Amino acid sequence: MSAQILDGKATAKAIKAELKERVAALRAKGVVPGLGTVLVGDDPGSHSYVNGKHRDCAQVGIESIRRDLSATATQEEIEAAVAELNADPACTGYIVQLPLPKGRYENRVLGLIDPAKDADGLQPSNLGKLVLMEEAPLPCTPRGIVELLNRYDVPLKGAEVVVVGRGVTVGRPLGLLLTRRSENATVTLCHTGTRDLAEHTRHADIVVAGAGVPGLITKDMVKPGAAVLDVGVTRTDDGLAGDVALDVTEVAGYVSPNPGGVGPMTRAMLMVNVVEAAERRLG
Ligand SMILES: Nc1nc(=O)c2c([nH]1)NC[C@@H]1CN(c3ccc(C(=O)N[C@@H](CCC(=O)O)C(=O)O)cc3)C=[N+]21
């Protein structure tokens, strides 16, 4: 038996085709969506992700606005780029690519983003709304994970979900999303302080691994038929390595691979957030 692949690449493509029509409708009404990105430094991974986001924009019909700053950019220069995008009417939504180079205050920068232009759902008042269960732009990776599971009819209601990793972009907001009444999953949030990870994952219907530890989830840790989503990525000498060992497909019911899984879904949800923000302008 071999797991069904949760194909994020194909699903993202279908979502982008739907979005293209919504963008055309917006443009017909005089609203041109524009995504801004603030990228600081020369990390190859970050550059590759940001390039992918702008490629998606071109496919969907969203205008691209780039602010690429050097690795020596100061806190003040980063904050000035944010202020510029807040003021720029052509920019209807934007992101600050994380992580920023060492020594910069990420939380301060996120706090300066105009909440109405927050395409990542990481601005503190929008994250606060998620906690308070009010409507707000949702963080892209968690939203992409929920969307991918829904499109493959993997049931969430009542499901036992183990999330590995407590980061601000994935694990922590994913726990909040999955425990909303609309999803109604039971979530266990595991992290480096978890005493016996396998004990948790072995009972899970769904495992989301976003720890950034290559091969962390092995097949003996997975319940037969469970869904396993690989969200971790580590750059090794042999290329990119995910958190999930390849032979997990022998026991799992569904596997979301990395690459080709949640990454493209994250980008598709960014496009959705930009289109939704532009649609809100029409009222
Ligand atoms: N403010 C902010 N928002 C983010 O959404 C954000 C961020 N910072 N910092 C880093 C993480 C990581 N992330 C990815 C997006 C797409 C792929 C992606 O498309 N991956 C392709 C492969 C692309 C490649 O090979 O470079 C795939 O999985 O198939 C991966 C990772 C967004 N992040």
Automatic annotation (TrEMBL):
This is Bifunctional protein FolD. NADP(+) binds at G165, R166, G167, V233. Belongs to the tetrahydrofolate dehydrogenase/cyclohydrolase family. Its EC number is 1.5.1.5, 3.5.4.9. The keyword Iron does not apply. NCBIfam families: PRK14193.1. Gene3D superfamilies: Leucine Dehydrogenase, chain A, domain 1 (3.40.50.10860), NAD(P)-binding Rossmann-like Domain (3.40.50.720). The gene is folD. Residues 6-120 form the Tetrahydrofolate dehydrogenase/cyclohydrolase catalytic domain. It catalyses: (6R)-5,10-methylene-5,6,7,8-tetrahydrofolate + NADP(+) = (6R)-5,10-methenyltetrahydrofolate + NADPH; (6R)-5,10-methenyltetrahydrofolate + H2O = (6R)-10-formyltetrahydrofolate + H(+). Keywords: Amino-acid biosynthesis, Histidine biosynthesis, Hydrolase, Methionine biosynthesis, Multifunctional enzyme, NADP, One-carbon metabolism, Oxidoreductase, Purine biosynthesis. One of its GO terms (biological process) is L-histidine biosynthetic process. InterPro entries: Aminoacid_DH-like_N_sf (IPR046346), NAD(P)-bd_dom_sf (IPR036291), THF_DH/CycHdrlase (IPR000672), THF_DH/CycHdrlase_cat_dom (IPR020630), THF_DH/CycHdrlase_NAD-bd_dom (IPR020631). Coiled coil: none annotated. HAMAP family: THF_DHG_CYH. One of its GO terms (molecular function) is methylenetetrahydrofolate dehydrogenase (NADP+) activity. Homodimer.
